[in-house]
Amino acid sequence: MAAARRLIGFNLLTAIVLGIGGWYAGWFGAHAITGPSLDWFSAADYNEVSVFMAYIGGVIGFLAGLGFLNYPFARLRGYPPSLREKETGGWSRYFSLCTDHKVVGIQYLWGIGLFFFIGGLNAMLIRTELLRPAHQVFPAGTYLTIVGMHGTMMMGMMSSGILGPFANYFVPILIGARRMAFPRIEALTFWLLMAAGGILTTTIFFGGFPTGWTGYPPLESQANAGMDCYILFFALVGISMTLLGLNMIATILTMRAPGLTWTRLPIFVWGVISTASLMVLAAPVLIATLGMAAFDRAINTTFFVAGGGGSNYLYQNLFWVFGHPEVYILALPGFAIVLELLPVFSRKPLWGYRLAVAGLLGVTLLSWMVWQHHLFVSGINGDLRPFYMLSTELISIPTGFTFICGMMTIWRGQIRFTVPMLFCLAWFFNFLLGGLSGVFLSDVPSDVTTHGSFFSMAHFHYTIMGGLIFTFFAAVYYWVPKMTGWQLNERLGKIHFWTMFVFFNSTFAPLFALGFMGMPRRVVTYDPSFQFLNDWVSVSAFLLGISMLVFLFNLVWSLAFKKVPAEANPWGSRSIEFQLPSPVPVHNFDRIPVFTDDPYGYGEGPAPQWVVPAGAPAGRE
Fold first, then answer.
1. CATH code, domain with 528
2. What's the whole-model pTM score?
3. Does 43 share its domain with 87?
4. Which of 10, 41, 434, 520 has a Cα at 20 to 30 A from 207?
């Protein structure tokens, strides 16, 4: 009976049912406006208006089923607000609206992990097709859709890959707060992201889209209804990113505990501030751009249609005004995680704290001044090229601050080669190669040769996968025991690291050579002379995929079967989250702590970096 009662009410099951109902309500409503056809379920019936209205209705129904409309309707009826929706509801709270920031963080971890797996599966399909120089497995249109789904899903979902699970969970704890500033908005950002991922996976049923992750017109305006799923996906991702960034900024600015001055703020929190600022300013540009693209497709406006007075070039500029800050939305949290973890495993204070903060803020500022290097071969005014070459290369200076602070922190330190530390050290190697290869793309003469080739794809993966994904796994191995209360297997973790590191480099390093040899991106056929390197890359990619399965096995084995309780502070960290029990209780602190020191004073005496007011429990296990 208890299990049956969990199925009744506002939860994921109800959300799916109402989401399907809302989808059909929007679909039929669209046809009531545009006029019904002879066959309601024919392929021709799925025009742009019907697809847009169907998914908008589906998202509204989905959110209503989760209970997001309960609060405003309760307030309208005169009931007092509540901030405790299902915060102590057992396992069912992970499948419903919950305002506990720790539950939301775990929801993000598993939800993003699901779509990361789907995106990785698409990558395996891509490399299967490229085992032969001629078409062999998928039709060309299907192949382009798989390429587009892989890139779009990875870029969209992983935009919140670190802020979603780890910032939501730990930022309130790191600043001594009991919750986020806007708990329901925090929950909304997660469920909007899940709705977006569900919409993108259905694009294949509407014919897919041929544009890759950038969505360039005129291909965008000429594509079939599958393109509408791309537009809705990124629009929902943009809304989620904007709200997530606003919530993070509001929380950090207004809810810091006494004594937590800006110079005592953990470097991870500085990384969150930098990333959240980019989210708040960049994502609305994406939303507006996609809104114009949707109008072009649904109601025949001509923002990006050259024949009607619009401009494809306008789309490229607007997209990359978002798109290049987006690259640093992915990269900056990785910088912050590396700088947060290195002092713990080097047993030294963070070297150059203020220089590291300057590096994060410098990257944030300069990321707005580089977007037109993506347009060097797209008709950019020649007089603008020197400025964007300079600004792109200048961004290496604040990035270098991060490298200097990290390398000096581990210099002559008492290094412990734990799994999180190994992933952090791999970041230095991967991101260095990504940054050096970026010089070729920032300079006009070499960019003309390498733009749109496998060279640019290799650079991008070294920068983003080598930067973000490796640090994501560092954070998983470092913080998941604190989040769940269960240890992850150390031996399996090291097997995962070494197989991932070796086969990541074996996969993407040869792409630099393929790019210089002239192989373009997003092609289903290629010159037979490129087959050996493509076969090497494909086999390496399959082995890289196996390394991810090792991680998945470790996660399931450690958290579901061989459950070993995690210590409160297994790493000997001075940071405040490791002074609390594992997992952290719902209320975080019995009383708000008072900070008296920075969290990086390793080797500087036993004084704690925070205290609790007199008479309050210490909050330790």
1. 1.20.210.10
2. 0.93
3. no
4. 520
